[in-house]
Amino acid sequence: MTEAIVVLLLVIAAGWPLGHYLAAVMRGAPMHGDRVFGVIEKPVYRLLGVDPSEGMTWKAYAAAFLASNAILGVLAWVVFMTQAWLPLNPNGAPNMRWDLALHTAVSFLTNTNQQHYSGQAQLSHLAQMTGIVGLQVVTPMMGLALVVATLRGLFGGRTPPSASAQATVGDVDVGNYWADVVRPSVRVMLPLCLLWSVLLTWQGVPSTLDGGPVATPVDASAGMAAQKIPLGPVAPMVAAKQIGTNGGGWYGPNSAVPLENPTPLSNLLEMVAILLIPVAITFMVGAFTERRRFSALVFGTMLLMSLVSGSAAIWSEGHSATASDIAVMEGKETRFGAGSSALWAAVTTQTSNGSVNAMHDSLAPLTGLVTIANMLVNGIWGGIGCGLQQFIVYLLLGVFLAGLMTGRTPELFGRKIEAHEVKLLAVLVLLQPLVLLGFTAVTLAVPELTGNSNPGFHAISQVFYEFTSAFANNGSGFEGLGDATAWWNLSTTLLLVLGRYPALLIPLAIAASLARKRVTPEGIGTLQVETPTFALTLVAVIVILTLLQFMPILVLGPIADHLALSAP
Amino acid sequence: MNTTSPPASTVHADIAPWRPAFAFAFIALLLFGFAYSLVGTGIGRLLFPHEATGSLIEQDGVVVGSSLVAQPFADDRYFQPRPSAATYDAMAVAGSNQARTNLDLRARIEEARMQVAAREGVAIDAVPSDLVTQSGGGIDPHVSPEAARLQVARVARARGLAVEQVEGLVAAHTQPASFGVFGAPRVNVLELNLALDALPRAAGAH
Amino acid sequence: MSTTPAHAAPRGHHALLDAAGLRTAIIASFVKLLPQHAFRNPVMAVVWLGTLLAAGLTIAGLTSRGLGWTVTALLLVTVLFANFAEAVAEARGRGQAASLRRARKDLVARRVPSEGYTIAATTIPAADLRVGDLVAISAGELVPADGEIVKGLATINESAVTGESAPVLREAGTDRSGVIGGTKVLSDEIVVRITAEPGHSFLDRMIGLVEGASRQRTPNEIALGLLLLTMTLTFLIVVITLPFLAGFVGATLDPLLLVALLVCLIPTTIGGLLPAIGIAGMNRALAANVLAKSGKAVEVAGDIDVLLLDKTGTITHGDRQATAFHALAGVDPAALREAAMLASLADPTPEGKSIVQLARDPSRAIEEPPHARFVAFTAQTRMSGVDLAGDGTRPRCIRKGASDAIARHVEALGGEVPTELAARVEQVARRGATPLVVADGRHVLGVVELSDVVKHGIKAKFAHMRAMGIRTVMITGDNPLTAAAIAAEAGVDDVVAEARPEDKLARIREEQARGRLVAMVGDGTNDAPALAQADVGLAMNAGTQAAKEAGNMVDLDSDPAKLLEVVEVGKQQLITRGALTTFSLANDVSKYFAILPALFAGAIPSMAALNVMQLSSPANAVVAALVFNAIIIPLLIPLALRGVRFRPSGATALLRRNMLVYGVGGIALPFVAIKLIDLLLAAVFGA
After folding, report:
1. Chains C and A touch, using 3 or more CB pairs below 8 Å
2. N or C terminus of chain B: which is more exposed, having fewer CB within 10 Å?
3. What is the pTM of this model?
């Protein structure tokens, strides 16, 4: 628990200034550091052939987002399928099969980093450094860009710097997509990644282009004549995976592997990195929208949910009756123990990061329940950008219900939420149970597809976890699942896409629709969203919504698993 | 505020911005991915050459392992690491991914408990969890101090050392939780075993 | 509802429904099972399909017979209850409308060829009247159809329509020229131009709306309906996928229980009551004697930020009353009194009457002087008075009027206007009163102070509005001094003085441009554009036809402060929807705890741990949840029709209160209720 509090305090202390810095970066106004970063940015804009100050309508913004994703995805896919023929492949990774490569490309493209492969053996250094790291750096910034554009829309569109840079009547200017991705990549993401890369190397994470030596183990009588120590440019990759809520590791078992997470201190560094930008974004919101109390609402609501979920995980894993189980250390690392493992499990699912430092499959069933619930909510901090975007969806739903209860047509920031917006929200609300329960049911109905490593109720959890993780763009897994099959690769690829693009674009469309409406000034009859009362209402809406839709499957999965464990 | 301007001269309305998308994809992979990785690797390598290259342990010019990778020990003269789901193959790192309710897991743990209890000559209940469970990555280089202490008597006996001496070595190799708060106390098995091997032979021979 | 006028009682607003209405509603509940009606409400349509499915499963023998028919019956009852809620709301609306209509039947009309005639050319049934026909109506006769007085003035008893027994004055060429079919002329004779065919009058159309026949769903209702549909589909997915999940661990689920689970989870409470809430909103407006042209108008009223009111007739009585005489220096106050009285004897306006009232000696009867020739007020002279053929040859001419008009008059006669007058006039004006100058021949005698009396209780109503976040703006043609004084006395937030008719429209547009929702209360023809522009235009029934057509609501009592009640109705309607939606969803938590253990009871014994309510048996648990689910609908009908109480307080306080009552209460109540029903079932039928 002490560790949890320290992590939180460190993250808040670092996230506060970072959030304000992020706000300045995303506002795009002249600021300190323009000269330094301009050295990288200016040639980049020239190569792109775009004017970063140019405004875009939400449709143009969305089109740019989708186009850049399409090309990036295809390029990464090609790299994974041809890596054996490309340089920098010291450990001889073969070309990936097309479906696995597709899943991998889409998985990293959607900031999910669900892995159906083991990087140390199945990816070349070149593939890691370009296809993996490149996507790990830019995809979180794409999420950030989308949520920033959405915020601009919610507050009526970007105020144009000059009269000539205005949007056409009807569709407001939500910003410039390319600038919104390039600026934070260069000014926030890469500097932080470099810092963390060096810090992690200091703790023992490999940072070399060598493939690693073959060691001669000490005790020959143990039957192992040679032990390959797989190395590579691991530290820059791990830094990017944690800073960017990516989660995909260099090694198969991710940050449970000592080479990827060597010490309790590196563990602390990585946990802080997991939370840093997601928490900073809650502080960015207030500064960016010049509405400080809005930050208080976002931060307060998320913190409350985070504390409840984190405490539940730590209690379940380290302090409940199941904690004295002899199997408690199964899938865990000695240097972290049950406490740090449970904290990590909570944090990585709260933020849509998905890296693990213990095998979630072997966690106590109730800890597993917490991780699944976190991913179903997908907005307790959430992924970079996506978390706040999901929060905005909840906010709209909460405002709709709470607004009615205060006797006014529901409105957010003075703009009325009407049938058109509710229709768009309905698509998102319906999509989640439809794909998660639908795919889980289909997979379980055809047992040949499941590839379970565990029997019974836990098998239901495994399948549901995999789909939930894909749809939430989390990427962690109950990894016992034999998921490198065509069914799993293709079905989760579809879910990765469905979980990413509608969740980022629909709120943008709603914001753009709201931006066109007239703003009612706030009066005493107006619902104040930045109050503890509304925050609690919002939490209730989030929890009830999740609970109601997924209660039966959670009962059949982790809860039945728990009951089976605790039954004599 | 958007009513006075003539129809947007500079607003981006082309719906398929393929040219910037192409350029961006290459920039993302080569500049933000590859170039960044190279720079990060270079700085790390420069500042922390030992850590950057896998915390390798060499003896007489031969790499005998890494402090961060567990290797199997069978001889009674050595402390045993945790069981590995990957059979200590670092290229195939993995956990068992077995659920708590999985009967196979229960059977495996029971068997391991009996083996350890028999080997160390203790009661089954005295066997700590980490010594009979497989770690997350399969190459956990540590065991808990309890697991190490459990093995002291057997190792001392096999090496003909005084129990106190081995106990002292274990204590010296026990790393506490960082700052007393982060993580858990632990003992690096490979380092401990190498330290045992490095003890002056005389201490135990006579 | 506390705001229901007392006179409304005979129409049965207080009782939920009378026996006849109840019978109609019950019959309607069954009629509404027909597909064309049933499928208009997707939530209840799912329950209806569930009923058929449950019956089918039972007949096919796929489930136990006893439980099968019980569940089928409970589901059918749930649908019927929802239908009943809607039918009750409709029946109440019809009851109110019928009493309005009753007054309008079997009327005859005396059609006249032109304004000049008052003797009937032809007597025809009112039903044969056409728009534009002229009819003459004398004292004692009923107005055959809606129209406007084109000649004469009359006192009219409108109690048949408004329930208000005090007679009202209606006069040609004024803002109060409208007459309503079915009302009774008490005095005088008028000629009325028919403005609507009987049965198609403005009122008839609006009554039709109230009856629900042509009710349009409001925007918010559509939005909420979408959300409820989404939740229904979500739970459909949940229930359809459940057997596959359970099948994987070897549990076979009873399809009947799945149907029961589905019905319990979908938001039937709000789904069943939603139409009733909408109808009831318009009914409640009608109960306050406000006819809304659409439910949307009532809904929008709940969002009003600014209320624009005409001063005259709204904030003040409009008919200014004489409150003091101010004689100029050297003038005998008695002379001023007498002159003022004489000048007003023939003045039919309330102002004139009030001068006579104030000036007369109560102990003496008023005698009309002989040879008097009264001079009526005209817009040109802006004076009125009397010429008395006195003792001498020259008539004595007494005039009263605006100070500049009198000054011109006196100067024209060769008299002189004392300098003192200006100060006196100013003094009166500063008090917010209107100065009326009296002159006897060439001599200015003094000033009559006419005060615009602010209506009793209006200040409290404005304070009430302020508490709800509504700003009031008074619009008046008065000078700024007078306007400010009245504004202060009435407690309005803002005032527009010396306003011309077009200023009202401009002000509304200005407020709307700032994003505010504006309500406008008006009665005159020149208010029509403003009423049309405003988001809520409340026209006075006594007002002109143009005003009534332009607004989206008509107040039958012509009481402008009535808007307050409409605002409350609008807010209550939204709160009721929000509260019942919250309640409905919160209920699901306990229903899960009732049904899930029952569902898995056979196949997965460890699930018994989830039976936190310790329900007696799986069958009883399911039946108890369904019984609760069904009876909560009729239990909440009164709430749906009455509306959740609205207390003017901050939005946050309202939210907190409603979340506690309907959110927390919605989670807790069914736990208790289902347990009690289960205890009852166990006691009566055994486990």
Report:
1. yes
2. C
3. 0.87
